């Protein structure tokens, strides 16, 4: 996944270049395909500076925390040849996703910068708000599936997207907000916060934060494909291929949204969550409960 995330960053840069009618990375190797290797070598060779008022351990704690939270989710990967099955996998996913907020807060707080602290506060408020209705959307799908296990959800007999298209739309909006992506990228609003909560990090620290962010995008794409588009995923080889195809498709969806949709205002973001999306998700959940009962 580290290799896949590194190359996904390059694909996003090239995709944004195509959407904006400009050149993306094209100098390193053929069509810039090895730009990920060049960026990784550059970042990990750069000097990792520390603020004078903080210890190296405390300053490094935030990026490492975000990194382990992001990649710890991949123990839930529902491959056909997986040796273990996590019975409460979806609950584990929700818990780790909520716990990742502490890594963002630590990163912004330990920077000892007003810009970073403001970005961290906005990230915490945004994540907590959208996790409420993200959980409601997940439980609406579980009403039809009846299991927390990602493997059993994958082997479900029907495509949930046809039965709950509204839940899919709500889920995609929540995925964009949860991963701090456009049009909800208020954590890194370049015109307001310079670089958000990671403004003081460079070199290896910035690399860990970038890998964690893009790893969350790929895992959210994986969860979307498994929960809503699981037709044919019960077959040994075609199932794993279908999982990969849907993961790549929804990863490209994140890039497409970033290149086409303008950023919201922060007050409109919070109003959208509490006044529109949360009542809608609760209504869909109650409707699904009635249908199942």
Automatic annotation (TrEMBL):
Keywords: Membrane, Mitochondrion, NAD, Transmembrane, Transmembrane helix, Ubiquinone. The chain crosses the membrane at residues 57-77, 89-110, 130-151, 158-177, 206-230, 237-257, 269-292. It is an enzyme of class 7 (translocase). One of its GO terms (molecular function) is NADH dehydrogenase (ubiquinone) activity. The keyword Metal-binding does not apply. One of its GO terms (cellular component) is mitochondrial inner membrane. Its main location: membrane. It holds the Pfam family NADHdh. It catalyses: a ubiquinone + NADH + 5 H(+)(in) = a ubiquinol + NAD(+) + 4 H(+)(out). It is a multi-pass membrane protein. Its EC number is 7.1.1.2. It is found in: Membrane; Mitochondrion inner membrane. InterPro entries: NADH_UbQ_OxRdtase_su1/FPO, NADH_UbQ_OxRdtase_su1_CS. GO terms for biological process: aerobic respiration. Belongs to the complex I subunit 1 family. This is NADH-ubiquinone oxidoreductase chain 1. It comes from Lutraria maxima.
